[in-house]
Amino acid sequence: MNKTQLQRIQLLTGAPAEVQSMTLSDWERIGGSKHPVLGDCIELRQESLLVVRVSAAELQVLRIHSALTPLEQELLKWAIQPSQQRPQGGSSDSERQARRLGEWIDQSLSLGEMRAEVPERFELGGRLFDGMIPFLLHSEQQAEEREPSYAELEKVLRSFISDEMMLIPIREREWLVLGSDRLLAEVEGAEEDIVDHDVTKEALHSLATGLHQMVTEEWGGECHVAVDLPMIPSESLVQTVATLRDTMYLGRKFHAGLHVHLPWMVHLERLLSGIPEGTRLRFMEEMAARPDLFTEPETISTLDAFFAMDCNVSETAKKLFIHRNTLLYRLDKLKQETGLDVRSFNDAVLVRIMLLLYKVTKRK
Predict the structure, then answer these.
(1) I need a labelling partner for 58 at 20 to 30 A (CA). Which of 67, 109, 130, 353 fits?
(2) Where is the PucR C-terminal helix-turn-helix domain (predicted)?
């Protein structure tokens, strides 16, 4: 907080004020919440403490030598928000609660508290106790493209998902979208809840794809969407956001060009990402009989389709719009050049790993 901002706050409250640092334990000891967020306020004897900055180690609080009215507290909370997070044209009570919940989620993630339970002050009318489908939306508009406001994005999402959805801003250009798990039955046109996990995953993929298309058509720019299985927000909200962030990171790292990311499709990628880079490079050197093998677009597209179709030759040929014999010729050629036959399980695993690692190393 700069000197000018501090002077304006003193003028607004009519009392002296200064910014001080405070540990999280000290904040909790004097009556503050265990997980403070920007704008939290404590009323002490003849003075007020307002959180103006939160980090993993400490807080910065604004100490005002006067008691604050509820209206003054709300005005100060708005004044200290980063400019890109301030709602345009006013905001509803639900939006303010959603933003505070998003700040708490982001802080819990930065502190590594993945199993943190949502504090009671964020009950949001009991909506966090229902089964919800979590979507993580990350938008990357160019400088000339306008980022949608909270109200605009919420309106469009309600038209796509339903009025039961919740929109929670977490970071700039990053939103958590919670939709009722009843959407799954609507996607499949079923009267009963979906039980089959494969069908559920297909339905979630369809919903995430539709969400991606809607956002890009409405506002343009590059947009990524990650989705996970339904959960109870009050029990696993922070852990779910961590999983979705990790899924989106792995999807963008290993599968450039894809914009919809699914946790159950990046298990191998997550394992490979945890292997030291030196070990990955040695593996590539040992396995690649021809270093230029994966520089051929035809080879890469053939293998991508082959693995996407679960190594089914007939389905892969259909996906590539080529004759089955043409595909067999390509696979035989790969076997001759590398000694690896992707129609064999062990060799298919090795080639799949090599292909994923190549996609990462080639962009460095």
Answers:
(1) 67
(2) 301-356
